[in-house]
């Protein structure tokens, strides 16, 4: 299941390729998205100094930043039916990103861990530089006020909470398998409780600080254009590749601030992407350890994965590639997958494996027993909230649209739901297969005996079971509890 979800997450390397494209253009003496004196601009283009967002609906004009994004970077076609030709400049950027990814992970965690020291820490330097600059801009506090004092009436909208929950899933990589992969390399007695606390604190804290960086610049941009902040707020790729570059182009020394921003964005996406790819590769090699763990074979296998992914993703850098990207982004790992996986994993941990047994393992590992609140979350709160979110999403489901005017053909929506069901249906199908193949009775009491974990050097442990274990417990443990172990004995 997590393999399928990871494959969908592979597409986010395209954000890195876009950022690299912008970074190259940031070194020009004249920022190309600041004026309309370029070959790709139309008669409706207006330069940033005279652009006012309220004119867009009134006079059907577009800013130079929008035209650079849509006509120069993407060269957008009329729809997914018109893929067009490959954009060779974007293809080169995509190739460079995959080459960097390969040399970051080709030796496994030995190489990726060293790269992460730089890619995970240097963005904080860039973030602080952009924060200081953003707070000194005129109009910055207007944007910060909009950020810190939102419309409280929106909190009564259930959809806002559903979107917030989805963002938490994505931000923390929940149900994606990457945390399982990274945690499997820790020592057995590592304090996972403390790690989880710091992970949540740093993740949410970074997001909170990044909000000041973004909204201070949006406030400056709103003051320059003489409009309110909500008028210039963008979501999705538009924020990173239209709104923020548009704002930096209005500052003194625009090249410097643009380079800082896109360098930070590249390092953030690099870090995220090679962890996703490494988790996929580790999972596959653990299925075939004798074949794929040999030194030379492992490097070749990683090379083949990167090469094959690059060739497949050439469709994303065509003239209709943005439509393919948004289709995979919307359906490949949507809230249906996230919530369904959250329900399934909580059922496996809290009910099938047993919350008390899980507590005992954590106590044996860390020396302290977690709060009973976590047991309530695993058994009741998270499954209930995920189920409610799952149902509300299906009830309020609307077809994906691009720019509120382009509607995908029926075959594209069918393809999208196929991607969604490819991960969701994997749970019952794999469970049914394991129940048919595993010896034992369906109603047999689970009497699984765990190996003495304290004797193991790492969390890549061996899992033992006796013949009396129920089939349901066995199959769900195989699905949800399997770590990328060096050796797993059934």
Task: Describe this protein's structure.
- This is Sodium- and chloride-dependent GABA transporter 3-like.
- One of its GO terms (cellular component) is plasma membrane.
- Disulfide bonds join 36-45.
- It is found in: Membrane.
- The chain is mostly helical and 490 residues long.
- Among the domains are: 1-48 and 61-79 and 91-162 and 190-325, no CATH class; 438-478, no CATH class.
- Helix content is 65%, strand content 2%.
- It has 22 helices and four strands.
- It has helices spanning 2-9, 13-25, 54-59, 64-73, 88-105, 109-119, 122-135, 140-148, 158-171, 178-183, 192-225, 229-232, 237-248, 254-287, 289-292, 295-312, 321-331, 335-366, 372-395, 410-424, 426-437, 471-480; strands at residues 45-46, 62-63, 401-402, 406-407.
- β3 (401-402) and β4 (406-407) form a beta hairpin.
- α5 (88-105) crosses α14, α7 (122-135) packs antiparallel against α14 and α21 packs across α22.
- 35% of the residues are buried.
- Mean pLDDT is 80; it is low at 445-490.
Spell out the key features of this protein:
mainly alpha; two-stranded parallel sheet; two-stranded antiparallel sheet; about 65% helix; about 0% strand; transmembrane helix; gamma-aminobutyric acid:sodium:chloride symporter activity; Sodium- and chloride-dependent GABA transporter 3-like; transmembrane
